[in-house]
Amino acid sequence: MMLTLLHIPPLPINPCSPPPRRRRCPPPMAAFASAPQQSKPLVLGCGAVSVDYLATVASFPNPDDKIRSLALKVEGGGNAGNALTGAARLGLSPRIISKVSNDALGKNILKELQDDGVDTSYMAIADGGNSPFTYIIVDNQTKTRTCIHTPGYPPMKPEELTKENLFAALHGVDMVYFDVRLHETALLVAEEASQRKIPILVDAEKKREGLDDLLNFASYVVCSAKFPQAWTGASSTPVALVHMLLRLPNLKFVIVTRGEKGCLMLERSMTDASETEESDVEDLLESLEQKVDLSSSMAKCIASKSNLRISADGVGSMSGRLLLGTAEAIPSEELIDTTGAGDAFIGAVLYGLCTGMPVEKMLPFAAQVAACGCRALGARTGLPHLTDPRLSL
Questions:
Q1: Which residues form the Carbohydrate kinase PfkB domain (predicted)?
Q2: Residue 165: which of 26, 355, 24, 353 has the closest Cα?
Q3: Ranges in the chain, pLDDT < 70
Q4: In the chain, N or C: fewer CB atoms in 10 Å?
């Protein structure tokens, strides 16, 4: 069935914003393939990009209500687009594989990414159809958001990524990242990246088609609070993390983000601790939680001893350590919008991994980056640069 593209008039932009600059089209693929390697770490992402239409309202409307917006913003979105924008602002050199149409929305998507230093030369551009867009309603009372997404059309097909462009996109890359959209294309990228022994990070936001295939290639996983139990059927999140590391032998660590509760990370040890006395993962988490300083508003990391034998009832045991990351406490008057907080966190994790940051520093750093993003409307406006004084390394 063909999708009819409705005309959507552009929403008003802040009159104080400078007028957009015209930008020349990127050079052909050969120009990028032959360019000298950059000094910044390179990360290749494959996944979603879109335009976000954000409206802040006093409270979420009831059915058949008519309400007015308190604030309005139009900016780029999509998990991959947001995470790579965040990584670029922190100092990485990102490339992206995705698809837009040759419409006004698509041109704006490309321009925003390019202006932030994201290489869009491996994007597929459809002649006709529509680029992806999302309506986002931000509840000013609860600080929650509701998203209504319209996918791009026509969808990306794996054959649109030629082998030549795939090889060029992976050239010199230090890390590959997937948000599990465009899963057939992502699988092609993952297979080639795995053959080249390039580390892979997967954003497991929720169960999606193609997710299991990508997880088999993953070196690192960052997932949402509900995902570990939904994917494993385990009785609790810590038990589910043990299950994930046992089920995915290539996985070095898994991080589950928990909003204002921070994050939890289970890291596999490089050496076997089978002779060590076993520590129950739920008891281990409880002992870490007792060390949290509730009076502190700063993001912290509390780690167990290294190379423990961590067990979970009915699942098994593995050698590793458990880390608890606290979130930065954001004053209520500064909290604006949580849209894209997870993407900001992932952008910071990509930076940390690509620059060799110890995970004990990476978790609080990622929490700080996410907190910066929550202090502005939309997923990208509040994303900080590495020089932001609110970030500590």
A1: 47-269, 327-385
A2: 26
A3: 1-38
A4: N
How many CB atoms neighbour CB 338 within 10 A? 19
Q: Which pTM does this prediction carry?
A: 0.87
**8 A C-beta contact, residue 370 and residue 344:** yes
Q: Which residues pair with 178 in a beta bridge?
A: 46, 202
168 token code pair:
């060029």
Structure tokens at 105: 């929305």
Taking residue 134's Cβ as centre, other Cβ atoms within 10 Å add up to: 19
Q: What are the beta bridge partners of residue 96?
A: 45
**One-character DSSP codes across 41-107:** PEEEEES--EEEEEEEESSPPPTT-----SEEEEEEE-HHHHHHHHHHHHT-EEEEE-EEESSHHHH
Cis peptide bond prior to 154, omega within 30° of 0: yes
Mean pLDDT of the chain: 90
Chain segment 60-119, per-residue pLDDT in tens: 999 999 999 999 999 999 999 999 999 999 999 999 999 999 999 999 999 999 999 999
- Say how many C-beta atoms besides its own lie within 10 A of residue 21's C-beta: 7
Helix/strand/coil for 40: coil
Q: Find all residues with CB under 8 Å of 222, minimum gap 6, and list them.
A: 201, 202, 203, 204, 254, 255, 256, 257, 342, 345, 346, 349
Residue 20 token pair: 């957009």
Name the one residue in this structure whose structure tokens are 């007015």: 68
Q: State how far Cα 134 lies from the chain centre.
A: 17
DSSP calls for 350-388: HHHHHTT--HHHHHHHHHHHHHHHTTSSSSSTTPPPTT-
Sign of the Cα torsion 373, 375, 377, 383 reads negative
List, for residues 5-31, the tens digit of each pLDDT value: 334 444 444 433 444 443 334 433 333
Return the amino acid letter for 73: K
Residue with tokens 């059309």: 153
